Every structure is written in structure tokens, then in C-alpha cells.
């Protein structure tokens, strides 16, 4: 529970003066993501910069230092019957909120609850000039200035070190139930989308190993009535299943070195025809793939499906791991990076080889 | 942008007419006149000329020509904005997207709609209704405002707490850059690789690019919606009731509050049967499945009763629901009937400070000698004070602006912000210096330059120059010191 802002700021200024680089690290549980970190760079550790700064349950707003572990946040929220609605994955006890935002990670409820970036209301950020700035706020609506807070989602620290986050929290649902039934991959895309289009309290829809799992959460009466109406068996231990999906502990994800590819695509797109195994989540919007392939092989398939592909974990991380970008967008992103970090001191090459 | 345009009005018009229907390249004062302001009519400026391109390729050519000639460009949708964000530049071009009014495709299965930027907000939901779907954000101007403008302002509405703002409800935008390149930001997936450029574009007030297509998410229409109207004999109790509902774990689809001035004006106008003696009125709409609404309505009524509601009425039919909402939805024109003019502010505050803010506003109202009525998106803390004034009384608008400015500063002081959903534009550019420091403002300028190196897109809006801010802060400082000295001597 310490405010390390001053030390962090001094380290950034010193690094800049010395012409060196910094890898930003929180709990260190997401080091497998992105391209390999620059081995010549120093470490800017947010691990000690922890603690809840403000929490007003009635406002549904929480402000925390970026190094605060997710588990600590969830414990504090649980005391008030609230939760992080976007179900951030916990790759370990040390997983922090700052890293979650930087990597834009959200769990199975994402299509209905919104993502981590959707819950963000404001941040404080140390840019590459060592300036500690405040963007957004602690209120649900704030359109003054550009949305620098949500811009950080997926930037993997390349624009600066997030030091504090204000975000929206939500009440825990009163009841949940999971329905499971057997279904072929060819049929499941259409099925999940049709279910998601019904005005029912659905908060999860995934498919793995020939079975489709639908989760219902909300008012007890609504969950029970929908479970009764829809097909599928009510699953014993449904909550445990979703925890495994959320934290990527399901056996589909086992094996850290074998490449794990992530497709973020049109939820209705037919599944790409490629040899390997699939885990379909987010009612078809997020599809995990395991199989022998290269980024160049998979990009056209992702494009046909209306989206993008990235190498989420494992495989060769010396080349680019994210879907390639058109030149005009590359140029803008380079300039945006430059506007925050003119000397390129933060996380060099972690996001793209060209950034 | 400091350089003077390199081409004359006649030269530019000639170039534009070589590829745009000459009728849609407007140069004469009479036809230019309607473009001189947006929904905030107190701020006016005649543009040099107006173009209404019909294809994306034409938009790109307009941008290239303006870029080459250092001519400012102000993109414009329906002109319903309330911050003078679409006010023209006197040496610039107004680029109207009015011709881009086609719904390109609705995908009922995927629950998305591909839209040209000039499609009206309400038209999306009207078209999607046949599939049992609708578009979430519903700004008050939804009958006229366009989706392109909604993206530019990150528009909200009365359902934000549960369904989010524009930024939460779009998947991608196609955009023409200041240099005339066509880029797509976002994808058909729920997220894209790398930094979240889609969030950055949303709410950027036309300073980063010209949006030429938008893909939005659609939501299944809830089975049932019911609204509870609850009256309270104090603003504090009304505020506590809002907190009470949320603490109870209910997230209402809409949660609106009105003060006594607004209650009476709205009830006179809409004959909605509002409790006219109440000091605060809450409209709490619960939507969802039949079972859920049934359960939550009973709980919400109970919460309101326990927290001292002096009257409670729950809609029993769609007609009754529409009637109860009619008062709130017509609050602005209703207030318009009791005053020659009104000025709508748009601050946001943490809800716990509501009573304090309303009280201080009453004090200011006495000091400035102007009445103020309040409608409040209570669920998300977005306050819309309506300052009543008469533009025909010399100096009264200036007093109104000064009053408004104080309200926004108060919002920042209690931890809120100067604009929840209307945007900064020209109107609130001064208060940007209150909410942000010089480093933050410079960072905004640097982000802008990453998209628009020569600064031709909507110059003079959104982010003030640092020089201006220093001057503004120093005047404020002097005034405050002066006031303190006066108070000390008084």
C-alpha cells in the first residue's frame, strides 16, 4: 500500500537523461505476451505501487494504483457485493490491474459487460518525458480532451507507465446458471449468435470439445426462467468452469510453449478452415486456435473473418506477433508513440517490431 | 495553424466544382447562412464556403486540396451539437456529411449495423426494430443528430449507466485523415491489436479525422420496461434514493432526476401528473426480462419508500410509461416556455456531491440574478443546469456565461468534469484550463499533431493554446484574490 510515484518519476527522468530504456513490469505474470522484451533495458517496477486510493460503492467507482493485484481489488469489492464486471484473467496471484489494462484483457463476460477499456474512466500516466499526467476522471461521463485513458488499452506500456486507474465497478449478479449441450463446430456459431440476440440475461457463450456452454446471470427469477426455457442441461459446477475459462486454466490452454493464437473476428464469421483445434468464446467474437501456422498463414483467414489475429502465447516471439497494420496507420501510431515517448524509452519493440 | 490559406475562395470553389456537383459547392452568403452555427446559436461565424460531397473519394479530394492549401476544414453532421464544435472557421471550408445518409447494412444475426456518418441516430433503431434490435445511446437530439456527430462527441443519453456511451457501442470507423488517406480503425471483432485508436477517435470533436463510415453494435430490445416516478421533499433525499437503488444492486436502464423548477415547467408542458410540490423527482426505469423487471420494480419501490419518497407511481402500461417520460424528455422546451432563452450546461459530478452542488448553484443563482432549473442524469452523475435568461437584455448573455463558467468550475472542484456529453468545442475551451494543466494540454496538442501535422482539422476547438490558458488562469487568480480581499474587508 504505497505511493511510489516520486521514485517512478525519478527513475524515468534518470533513464531518459542516460539515454537508456525501460521495460515496465507489474506482477510479471504477462511476460509471455507481446514480442520478447528488450534484454538491454532496465526495469520500471510497478509492483510496489499498490493500494486502493478511493472506493465509493454507491458511485460504482474505484480508483486504484496500477500495481494493485486483481485479487486484492476483487476482495475489497466483494465486501460490498460488487465485482469487476469484465472478469479480468488472473494468470497468477500477482496479476495487476495496470497490466490488465495495458494488455486489454477481459474474460468470458466481455461481449455483455464490456471490456477492461470499457470500464476505465480515467488514468494517471507517466509519459516518456517523466511528466505525471491525469486524463479522464472518476465520473461515468467525461468528454473533455482526447480519450488518452482508453488509448492505453492494448498499447502494452509503449505510451507510458499507467500509475493509477479509475474504473466502473458493478454489483455482483444475484444468481448464475450454466447450460451445456453437445454441438458441432459447424452449428455453434449460428447458435451462439442467435442466443445472444435474445433479450435474456446471457453473460457467457463458449464452445470447446464438441460442447456449447451458455451462462446466465442476473435476477434469480430471470435466470431460472431462461434456464427452464432454453435447451441444454444445467451444469453442476458451472462457476468453476467459467473460472477456468477466465483464467485460461482450462485444459485447452495447457502447455505454455506451444503456440496459442487468438482470433478477434466478426462473431458470425464461419470458422477458418485450418488444421488444428479451436476454443470459441465471446459468442464467436474471440476464437483461440492451436496448430502449426505462421502469422502470415493466419492473417488472410482473420481478414476474411472480418478481424485480426495475434500470437497470444508461445511460439517464436522475435518477429511480429500482432496482425500487421497498413502503412497509413503505422505512420500515425509511430507519431502517437512519439508524442508520449519521444526518446522511445518505454517497452521498445514489445508491441511491434516497428514501434 | 498560423499560415494564411494559399488559395482564394474563388480558386478553391473552382477546384471543388471540378469533381463535386457545383450545386453542392456553396459560396453565396444567403446559402452559407444556415451553416454559421450549430445547436449553440450564440456562437456564430460565416464559413468561407461549404461543400457537400457525395462519395468518400470526393471527401478525400477535398481533404487533399485543403491540406495542400492550409485551409481549415470543419466537418459537420446535422449541426445539433451544443458546444459550437461545428461552428465554421471564417477562412475555412465546412465539409457537410449530409449526403452520407444511407444505412449500408444491418446484420440481424451479428447484431451490427454499417452506417454512413449522416444517418440519424433514431433512424438506426427504427430500422433495426424489425429484428427486435436497437442502438443503445440515445441523446436528446436523437431525432435529428447523426451517428458521425455522435462519434465525434462520444454522445450519451439517458441510458448510459447500463448501456454505455458511443465509445462502448461502436466496432469500427472508416476515416479520412487530414492528408486525405482513407483508414479503418477497429474491426468487425470486439477489439483490435495494439493501442486503442478507436477510443481515441471517439469524442475527438472532428480534430483528428473525418469519419466516413461507422459500424455500430445493436442490442436486443428488452422484453419489458417499467418506470417508477418517485417524489421527494428534499434534493438530499432524492440523491440518497439514487444511491440506495444502486447499492441495492439494481442498475436501472434510465435514472433521471429533476429539481422543483424543472418539475413544474415540465408538468405544465406535458401534463404528466408530476408531484408539483416535490423538491426532487426521480424517474427510474427498469428493463429486462419480465421476471427480472417484476422482481426489481418491487425492490426499487421498497427502497424509495424506505428512503422517504413522498409519492410513488409505477407505469402499468406503455402509454403510462411514455407519459411519465414525456415530461422529462420535453424538459428543455418546457423550460423554454417560462423564459425567453435558456442556456444548457453539461457538467459531471460524483453523485455524492449532488446536494452540495445544487445548493451552491442556488447561491450563485441569487448572486448572478438568474434562475436555474436542473435536470440530471442521476445514474451517471451528468448534470444539465438550464440557466434562464433574456438575450434581448444587453449584457445578460455575458452574465449567463459567467454563471455557467462558475458551475463548471464547481463541478471540477468536487471531482467531476466540465463536460459529460456535449463536448468542449469553442464553448468550454476556457474551462479546459481548469480541468487540465499545461503538460496535459500539451500532450493533447501533440496527439492532435500525430493525426493532423498542419492543424487544418477544426482548428481553435477542443484544446486551448497554452498561452490562452495562462492568461485565463491569471485573470481567474486575480479575480479570486480580489474577491478574497473584498470578503476580508467586507
Short description:
The complex is a heterodimer of chains A (355) and B (490). Chain A is an alpha+beta fold and 355 residues long.
Structure description:
The complex is a heterodimer of chains A (355) and B (490). Chain A has helices at 5-17, 70-78, 97-102, 110-113, 116-119, 148-151, 185-196, 220-229, 238-246, 295-304, 327-340; strands spanning 22-25, 42-45, 52-56, 61-65, 82-83, 120-126, 132-136, 161-168, 170-171, 175-182, 202-208, 211-218, 233-234, 260-264, 277-281, 286-290, 308-313. Chain A has 355 residues and is α+β, with helices and mostly antiparallel strands. In chain A, the strands form five sheets. Chain A has a five-stranded antiparallel sheet. Chain A has a four-stranded antiparallel sheet with strand order 11-12-10-13, sandwiched between helices. In chain A, strands 15-16-14-17 form a four-stranded antiparallel sheet. In chain A, strand 3 and strand 4 (61-65) form a beta hairpin. The longest helix of chain B has 24 residues, at 466-489. In chain B, 38% of the residues lie in helices and 19% in strands. Chain B is an alpha+beta fold and 490 residues long. At the A-B interface, strand 7, helix 6, strand 9, helix 7 and helix 8 of A face strand 9, helix 7, helix 8, helix 10 and helix 16 of B.
Write the layout of secondary structure elements.
The complex is a heterodimer of chains A (355) and B (490).
Chain A lengths: L4 H13 L4 E4 L16 E4 L6 E5 L4 E5 L4 H9 L3 E2 L13 H6 L7 H4 L2 H4 E7 L5 E5 L11 H4 L9 E8 L1 E2 L3 E8 L2 H12 L5 E7 L2 E8 L1 H10 L3 E2 L3 H9 L13 E5 L12 E5 L4 E5 L4 H10 L3 E6 L13 H14 L15
Parallel strand pairs in A: 1-2
Antiparallel strand pairs in A: 3-4, 4-8, 5-9, 6-7, 6-8, 10-12, 10-13, 11-12, 14-16, 14-17, 15-16
Chain B lengths: L8 H9 L7 E2 L2 H4 L16 E3 L4 H14 L3 E4 L16 E4 L6 E5 L4 E4 L5 H8 L4 E2 L12 H7 L6 H4 L6 E7 L5 E5 L10 H5 L8 E8 L1 E2 L3 E9 L2 H13 L6 E6 H11 L9 E9 L1 H17 L4 E4 L3 H12 L1 H8 L2 E4 L2 E2 L5 H15 L3 E6 L4 E8 L6 H18 L18 H4 L2 H14 L14 H24 L1
